Amino acid sequence: MKIRLNGFLPKTRAAAWMRVWEFGSAETQVCPCFSCSHTPARAHFHAWVASAVGLAAGILLASARVSQGSALTIDVSGTNRSAWSENGGWLNGKPTHESVHVFYNGSNSFLSGYAWAENIGWVKVGSGNGPYLNTASNNWGVNMDAQWRLSGYGWAENAGWVRFAATHGRVTIDPLKGGFDGYAWAENLGWIHFTNAAPAYLFQAAIGFATNQVPQWWLWDYGFTNNFDAAAQGDWDRDGAATWEEYVAGTDPTNEASVLSLYIPSPDVQPDAGILIEWPSRSDRRYSLSRSSRLLDVPPFQVVATNLAGSGGTYRFADTNATGPQWYWYRVGVRFP
Ligand SMILES: [Ca+2]
Ligand SMILES: [Ca+2]
Predict the structure, then answer these.
(1) CA 23 to CA 333: how far, in whole Å?
(2) Of all helices (H) and strands (E), which one includes residue 244?
(3) How far is ligand 2, taken at its centre, from the CA of residue 238, in Å?
(4) How do residues 231-290 score in pLDDT, each as one tens digit?
(5) Which of 162, 186, 205 is the last residue of a domain?
């Protein structure tokens, strides 16, 4: 089979369409224009984003994009705020008039504020002027890296230094659920444990989410610092995908070239039967592919493949059943594993 491309590289995005004509054993023609008058009738490729959170409202609100200044403040949960030290007792991350704060700023994130331990009193995790060097008695505090791993020192007024990246321990934070996990080491108390199943306790940062469950910190990574709902709903790089869709797809909402798209490879690599299509993939996403030969069918699309693990590069799929002399519509869906 030969495939003839109509003069330019076919490419679709979330809001763009492209037509593919399969001549069976003869040849496949690709026509990416909207108003094509070629016969037979049209068929389209359509890249789309599927998510458990539903479809975007599709409305553009006032701009939420401002320059990134300080850090995004994430407080400890008012409900799940307890850690346990066998010698210090319960440690409360959000006592009356105080709180442990996570100041999120990507790889320059840090903690600040106070917790209260019933047996040893105040435990300070930083002054708020981070990230901390932790090289002298006046520049200590707890830092957090881009993988949400804590390091550095806190100070307990009655128990001395508390190390958050101890030799045999470490404290991490779940970026989606906010739970602290692991152990810190207090020089005069021993281990402080942040989460446990039985007895159940959890020390948790209250992660903020914009509409469609987009973490505020993810938006912050791309320079959105307020009006997070508007940021998630808008399409600020005008690539046809709303920012929340780009979060699901794992693409850059500030880069027009970064978007879930469908491609037709060159004719040289097309299979003898069927159609070979490609899309950019991430190893931390799962993809599905659907096809339609008649958009008037109910439902119009039939699943060709599902739960495809992304390769981290270009994903290639040969639809060997698309052999009839007709147009085909395709769409690719993406979700979290
Ligand atoms: Ca976009
Ligand atoms: Ca983009």
Answers:
(1) 26
(2) helix 243-249
(3) 7
(4) 999 999 999 999 999 999 999 999 999 999 998 887 778 888 889 999 999 999 999 999
(5) 205
175 cis-preceded (ω within 30 degrees of 0): no
Q: Closest-lying ligand to the alpha carbon of 252?
A: 2
- What is the whole-number distance in angstroms between the Cα of residue 188 and the centre of ligand 2? 50
196 in any annotated domain: yes
Tally of domains in the chain: 2
Tens digit of pLDDT for each residue in 303-312? 999 999 999 9
Q: Residues 74-127: pLDDT tens digits?
A: 999 999 999 999 888 999 999 998 999 999 999 999 999 999 999 999 999 999
* Whether residue 198 sits in one domain with residue 91: yes
Q: Are residues 110 and 27 in the same domain?
A: no
Q: What is the pTM of this model?
A: 0.79
Do both 117 and 182 map to the same domain?
yes
Which domain range does residue 9 map to?
A: 2-48+260-335
Ligand in nearest proximity to the CA of 235: 1
Residues 223, 260: Cα–Cα separation, whole Å = 21
Q: Are the CB atoms for 222 and 244 separated by under 8 Å?
A: no
| Cα 144 to ligand 2 centre (Å) | 27
Cβ(47)–Cβ(39) below 8 Å: no
pLDDT exceeds cutoff 60 at 42? no
Q: How far is the CA of 246 from the centre of ligand 1 (A)?
A: 6
Final residue of a structural domain among 205, 222, 238 = 205
